[in-house]
Amino acid sequence: MHYSDKPWLKHYDPGIEAEIEIPSLSYRDILEQGLTRFPDKPALFFMGKTITFKDLDRMSARFAAHLAKCGYGVGDVAGIHMPNIPQYLIALAGVQRAGMAATGISMLLKPRELAHQLNDSGAKVLVTLDVFFEQALWEIRDQVPALEKVYYANVGDFMPFVKKSLGAALKKIPTGLIQPISGKTVEPILTILKEGDPTPPEVSVKPEDTCLIQYTGGTTGLPKGVVLTHRNIVANVEQQVRWSKFEPGKDVFCSGFPFFHMAGKMMGMAAMSTSSAQCLIPDPRNTKHIAGEIKAHKATVLVNVPTLYQMLLDEPAFKSLDFSNVRMCVSGAAPFSVDAIKRFEALVGKGKVIEVYGMTETSPLSTSNPHVSPKKIGSVGIPLSNTDIKIMDVETGTREMPFGEEGEICVSGPQVMAGYHNKPHETSHALREHDGKLWMHTGDVGRMDEDGYIYLVDRAKDMLIVGGYKVFSREVEEVLSNIPSVELCAIIGIPNPERPGSETVKAVVQLAVEYLERDKGQLKEEILAYCRENMSPYKVPKIVEFVDAIPLTAVGKVDKKALRPPKQ
């Protein structure tokens, strides 16, 4: 049997086809349909306020008209730098309706990292929070020459009056100082959303045009931009809609994934285009709030990382819920242990956890467990419609591995990215042609059983998963190498016993000779302080170990295998 035999097809749910027709439309086209299909239905639930699709349509149209009037359209890029609040999706919809591409920016980025993404993407427009303006943008205002316009918002802009007033009085709503920036326009987005021209611009957007430039960690240096076309996004929306049988206007989504993460962004985009309501969760650590949203709005689809599901198991308000409305709990971005799944399903209902697999480069979804056909707990499921997957040897990426044996997961399908932004070498390494198809070499190690179910065995060689976020060791190592006391270093992941599927970042450091007699406690604090200043919090090492000498391989490379703890 070969991968081309597609053994997974016999496990598709009834009615799911091997090949489905992907509409020859842009995401802008299906977004317009979703916004206008049920104007009076709720689109967004946020802190006690409901925004209807009519509201979302009108406000995003005003922003789109404003952007078009400023001369922006197809080929231009807008950055969105906000938490999961209404302005994020309003801005995203407006950017798409203007024909622009969007680049989602992590709230955790330090100024140096923010400057890189703005400059690398060529963003001319930035939509941000007033707090982030003060904390990050102001510091790099002279380092982002392509940026022309900045639109700022406040977390409380769309809160109900009572909550907003109380929050302001108690100083619970953060506010940042806004100042003019020479050579750039700075203005509040709320004025445009309330008073702008509500006529959306007429724009011709082709399926092959760029829809998103999503940044993902790179094994060499700073993150690289993944170019996703409108065809990629429309294909993945259609694949998910068919697979999970989403009916327009029927579902209510609730997710702790941030919108800057590809999983969160796709959920938000799919919900808008299918006229589905969504509960906005600005702080996923507030499990009591999540439970309240599920109860208040009768959520039907939960989408989260395993660690959040495990946190919810410890939340009394969640454990007391009636889960009869919840039809699926989608889990991705990190492994979900078999025991944890069983415990979670004992509460929400057997068979409701749907493990999936994907990555930014595949828009993001490639596989999913079926809903009706047998699920295999511990597996990330089977390839979606129009998707081929095979396991290739890790060493060369040219030889198919037998079923059941480990190798690199390779994906082919309409959801596979166009390439890495301005990085032809990295693109040619990741996207390779064989069997007449273009395959994404994911860097993830896994195996496929004879039924076509896929099991993740390991992640990309030097990648860590920290609370659902990817951390590439090389990027952290490059920051550490700038510290005078560090002669040589290696970043490895240590399993986090408190969060199965998540790791703790550990730095192993060989000190420069002139620092050997210095106080180790003080050196450790200096190293961590430098990391905190130059990296997102989840990338900062939690453990620093000093060693006499970093072990090297025969060819002089750091031998991380020798540093990692033995597998239990």
UniProtKB/TrEMBL annotation:
<dbReference type="InterPro" id="IPR045851">
    <property type="entry name" value="AMP-bd_C_sf"/>
</dbReference>
<feature type="domain" description="AMP-binding enzyme C-terminal">
    <location>
        <begin position="475"/>
        <end position="557"/>
    </location>
</feature>
<dbReference type="Pfam" id="PF13193">
    <property type="entry name" value="AMP-binding_C"/>
</dbReference>
<dbReference type="Pfam" id="PF00501">
    <property type="entry name" value="AMP-binding"/>
</dbReference>
<dbReference type="InterPro" id="IPR020845">
    <property type="entry name" value="AMP-binding_CS"/>
</dbReference>
<feature type="domain" description="AMP-dependent synthetase/ligase">
    <location>
        <begin position="32"/>
        <end position="421"/>
    </location>
</feature>
<dbReference type="GO" id="GO:0016878">
    <property type="term" value="F:acid-thiol ligase activity"/>
</dbReference>
<dbReference type="InterPro" id="IPR042099">
    <property type="entry name" value="ANL_N_sf"/>
</dbReference>
<dbReference type="InterPro" id="IPR025110">
    <property type="entry name" value="AMP-bd_C"/>
</dbReference>
<dbReference type="InterPro" id="IPR050237">
    <property type="entry name" value="ATP-dep_AMP-bd_enzyme"/>
</dbReference>
<dbReference type="InterPro" id="IPR000873">
    <property type="entry name" value="AMP-dep_synth/lig_dom"/>
</dbReference>
<keyword id="KW-0436">Ligase</keyword>
<protein>
    <submittedName>
        <fullName>Acyl-CoA synthetase (AMP-forming)/AMP-acid ligase II</fullName>
    </submittedName>
</protein>
